[in-house]
Specification:
By secondary structure, this protein is α+β, with helices and mostly antiparallel strands. It folds into two domains: 102 residues, no CATH class; 88 residues, no CATH class. The chain is built from five helices and ten strands, in the order ααβββββαβββββαα. The strands form three sheets. The chain has a four-stranded antiparallel β-sheet, with no helix packed on it. Strands 2-8-7-5 form a four-stranded mixed β-sheet, covered by helices on one side. Strands 6-9 form a two-stranded parallel ribbon. The longest helix is centred in the C-terminal third of the chain and has 32 residues. The chain starts with a helix and ends in a 7-residue tail after the last helix.
């Protein structure tokens, strides 16, 4: 199991610098931030929420980044909800804001799921989504970025250090070589994630 501290030590060894602890930490976090919205099998999530009678909004998961699918269970049957913009739901509710029923549309707004019609009871919502992973601060902290995505994050962080901290012709040449490796690792990870989704795709029925 690789950790935040393990990666720091490895990067310091690979760039042969023991005086850049703070910069290495920043580069690692910056690399994770750069790739957090890229889709891999380890940052996909699913969530089950319940509506309440008269409540138009349902809170999103705390680690939510982007919705994939959202459906509702009504009388033991699952229906996919249609995604709309917040503005389009505004136009509907302005003319028919008191109507209640089982929702057929939704919009994402202010870290909430906005439903239309407004629920007239308790219904189960099932969501699949792109999620953020836990932040790290202590050397013993870890996440899939330090296991499944270890080489990608480490390589991106080293490029950042070479280009923006160490600098110089030799550093830039090394960064260029590492950039090719980073792109290769990214392609391999995307291919692996695509293969996994093709054979073991997260679906609402698997909740």
């Amino acid at each position: 199991m690789s950790t935040y501290g393990t990666m720091q030590d490895r990067i310091a060894d690979e760039i042969n610098r023991t005086d850049l602890t703070t910069q290495i930490q920043s580069a690692i976090k910056s690399a994770i931030q750069f790739y957090k919205t890229h889709r891999f099998n380890f940052n996909e999530g699913k969530s089950v929420r319940n509506t309440a009678d008269g409540d138009e909004f349902v809170g999103l998961p705390s680690d939510y980044l982007e919705v994939d699918t959202l459906g509702i269970t009504v009388s033991s049957r699952y229906y996919q909800l249609m995604q709309r913009t917040h503005e389009s739901l505004d136009k509907i509710t302005w003319s028919d804001g008191s109507y209640k029923g089982f929702p057929i549309m939704y919009a994402i707004y202010e870290q909430n799921i906005r439903l239309y019609p407004i629920p007239d009871g308790t219904y189960e919502l099932k969501m699949t989504y792109l999620r953020s992973l836990s932040d790290v601060s202590a050397t013993g902290d870890t996440s899939s970025w330090f296991t499944d995505g270890e080489e990608l994050v480490r390589t991106h962080a080293k490029i950042d250090l070479l280009e923006n901290i160490i600098r110089g012709p030799d550093a830039m040449n090394e960064a260029g070589s590492l950039r090719m490796r980073e792109n290769e690792v990214l392609r391999n990870m995307r291919s692996a994630s695509t293969r996994r989704r093709a054979t073991n795709r997260i679906t609402p029925s698997g909740f």
